[in-house]
Amino acid sequence: MNSAPGHSGLAPELTISMRLPREIAYDQSHMPIQDHPSTLTLPEDLQTLLPQGLHSQCEAMALKKGGLLFQTGKKPQWLYFVRLGEVTLERVSPHGERIVLQRTRRGFVSEASLQSSHYHCDARAVKPTQLIQIPIQALAQALENDRAFSMRWIKMLNLEIKHLRLMCERLSMKSVRERILHLVDSEGTQGRYQLNTDLKTLASELGVTHEALYRTLAALEKETELSREKGVLVRQ
User: Fold this and answer.
1) 224 lies in which domain range?
2) What is the pTM of this model?
3) Is residue 168 part of a domain?
4) CA 209 vs CA 39, 177, 200: distances in Å
5) Are the beta carbons of 125 and 87 closer than 8 angstroms?
6) Which tens digits make up the pLDDT trace of 205-232?
7) Position 136 in a domain
8) How far apart are CA 202 and CA 208, in angstroms?
9) Higher pLDDT pick, 28 / 58
């Protein structure tokens, strides 16, 4: 695996991040834990997105590392929102190898299940993960009957598409330097990009090795093109 500051040679995976959190306990058997709906407090952004009638139908759950959220071929009953942790969407290749299609650290998992009779991949927690599950039938009905909600949903998907397009544009760049500066310029605010992950995770999202990322950040700081201030990348 090439760790030079140029193209890393890694095949980048799709990573979804939609910053939203809350604490849940874990059981001892890798089984999901559900809070009673009346005790569940939704993250503020999810409260704003979903119509009031859906709030009481949402349930909290948790998975331990390695736990399956859903499996290929199963009928979708819930739409899942990752608030803490990480879930991967996976398929098995003809040679029996697991291929990671997408990583979700915060945001919805498998929105396509709204229009599908069965799941087309597996979803697995790769670390202890906290989620909110929303009943698909109730969500689909709300989208059909509540125009204001359907417009909010479309806006949310449009923002996600915009984010993914920027990510694809970034991953097409050959050097680590270009990818870092593109990230700050395109997804930061006034030249400041808030890091919501550690640098090793950021390297994965940029499709480079963490050694190449550390070296390039150090070079950018030395050249006073970029600085780091308490978890924020700042363009000079």
Assistant:
1) 174-235
2) 0.69
3) no
4) 42, 13, 8
5) yes
6) 888 888 999 999 999 999 999 998 888 9
7) yes
8) 9
9) 58
